[in-house]
Amino acid sequence: MQWIDSHVHFDADILDAEGMLASMDENGIERAALIAPLTGQLDETALMHYGGGLLRSALAGRLRPLRRAVRGLYDRWSFRDGEIELGGRRYPVILQPDNGPIVALVRRHPERFLGWIFINPDGPVHPIDEIERCKETPGMFGVKTHAYWHGFAIESLRDVAALCVERDMPLLVHLGCRGGGDYTLLPRLFPGLKLVYAHAGVPYQRAVCAFARESENVYVDLSSPGYVSTRIARTALALAGPRKCMFGSDGPYFEVKDGRMNYAASRRLVEAAELSATDLEAVARGNFESLLGR
């Protein structure tokens, strides 16, 4: 079975197109849905500090006081004054990620790559104009937003969500804190919206996954070993159900060496759950294909 990576960044400073294609071939990845990078290359130590085991476990665990405390820490690392703080260092955030390289790759390799259109509803480029511009390229199939590192309230996505419903485009959201974490708002306002919450709904993983089970068009991706442990993946699959979860890597971060990306850790999150063949195929590719109307 060939897998589809529903959530992977293209950052040529870390892994170029040829390296990405070779990595996909070596790891059984048929297609990849690309996302523009949101910041410059992050220090790996900072990433591991940010997505360490304690953070992952606490956010997904059953102990509410511990979850609240860790969410406070998560909030401290969020977007402020154009930067994020990770591991004691500050990194600039790109207020409008450049979709140009994604569009170019989708045009060059339409059989291997799809593209999420990255927008910021409070950014310097009008989000509707950016979607309309990028949507002219076949394969630019959905919209990506990052309420956490762009620091906006989910309320700001109303117009974007309405356009996604009109154009039958899925919307991928990395939830933030406070108003940026309202995971019920868009499904209430736009029940026909195909909505994916990144990283199993971090930082509200248990609640978001339970909500996805009860909401017809709400999904979660299981991308990034930095956010999702095998325990969290099992919890997401149990709460949301295998028909509401999809595979993603969040690469090329963490896993690149010698010009190749190793998908082993990302695939292990799904494979460790020991799903039936039917459920494994749904998570590995089928649920994502349903977003495309297939």
Fold and architecture overview:
With 294 residues, the chain is α/β, with parallel strands linked by helices. It is built from 13 helices and twelve strands. The chain has helices at 17-26, 44-50, 53-60, 64-76, 100-108, 127-135, 147-150, 158-167, 185-189, 205-214, 230-240, 264-271, 277-291; strands at 3-9, 29-35, 83-86, 89-92, 113-118, 140-146, 171-174, 195-197, 218-221, 245-246, 256-257, 260-261. An eight-stranded parallel sheet has the order 1-2-5-6-7-8-9-10. Strands 3-4 form a two-stranded antiparallel ribbon. Helix 1 (17-26) links the parallel strand 1 and strand 2 (29-35). Helix 3 (53-60) crosses helix 4 (64-76) and helix 10 packs parallel to helix 11. The longest helix has 15 residues, at 277-291. The radius of gyration is 17 Å and the shape is globular. The two termini are 17 Å apart. 49% of the residues are buried. The model has no long low-confidence stretch (mean pLDDT 90).
